[in-house]
């Protein structure tokens, strides 16, 4: 059972780490970032309905003039309606925060011809946002003797893989 779990984790890590449709964007705390997205190839003839989300939460959704901004993203995210109508579904994030780092995915509603078939969300783009903290942000609330000296920790998936490898090796 452990070997099966280990194999599944390794496969997931390998698949997600080398995803060909993932783009890496880096932004500094307090700046703005544009997470690129182009839906011109699959644009519906009607008003486009776009959704951006992380693995755990909805970040932004737009249908025409109506839009929703997820918790913690209020007044900081947008997919401008005029650009969306032209097939540009890029997400603009203002005032970047350290907690904004992560993988974002965009989806577009593809309407079905028959009413009995449910609406389908078509995956468009996966973008990984890396947030660089300023020196002031790194030391905020800590004394220089007790902080991590600016060390960056590896991706959580790599940490999990290393931990699983150690556990399996010791058994």
TrEMBL record:
SUPFAM superfamilies: Immunoglobulin. Residues 1-19 form the signal peptide. The keyword Disulfide bond applies. GO terms for cellular component: external side of plasma membrane. GO terms for biological process: cell surface receptor signaling pathway; cellular response to lipopolysaccharide; immune response; negative regulation of T cell proliferation; positive regulation of T cell proliferation; T cell costimulation. It is a single-pass type I membrane protein. Residues 20-104 form the Ig-like domain. It is found in: Cell membrane. Keywords: Cell membrane, Disulfide bond, Glycoprotein, Immunoglobulin domain, Membrane, Receptor, Signal, Transmembrane, Transmembrane helix. Transmembrane segments: none annotated. InterPro entries: Ig-like_dom, Ig-like_dom_sf, Ig-like_fold, Ig_sub, Ig_V-set, T-cell_Activation_Regulation. This is Ig-like domain-containing protein. It comes from Astyanax mexicanus. The lineage of its organism: Eukaryota, Metazoa, Chordata, Craniata, Vertebrata.
């Amino acid at each position: 059972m452990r070997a099966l779990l280990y194999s599944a984790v390794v496969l997931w890590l390998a698949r997600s780490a080398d995803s060909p449709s993932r783009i890496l964007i880096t932004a500094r705390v307090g700046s703005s970032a544009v997470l690129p997205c182009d839906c011109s190839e699959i644009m519906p003839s009607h008003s486009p309905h776009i959704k951006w989300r992380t693995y755990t939460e909805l970040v932004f959704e737009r249908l025409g003039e109506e839009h929703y901004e997820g918790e913690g993203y209020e007044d900081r995210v947008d997919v401008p309606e005029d650009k969306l109508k032209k097939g540009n579904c890029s997400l603009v994030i203002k005032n970047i925060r350290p907690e904004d780092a992560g993988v974002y995915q965009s989806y577009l509603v593809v309407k079905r011809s028959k009413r009995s078939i449910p609406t389908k969300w078509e995956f468009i783009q996966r973008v990984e946002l890396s947030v660089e903290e300023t020196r002031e942000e790194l030391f905020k609330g800590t004394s220089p003797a007790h902080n991590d000296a600016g060390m960056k920790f590896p991706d959580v998936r790599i940490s999990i893989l290393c931990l699983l490898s150690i556990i399996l090796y010791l058994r």
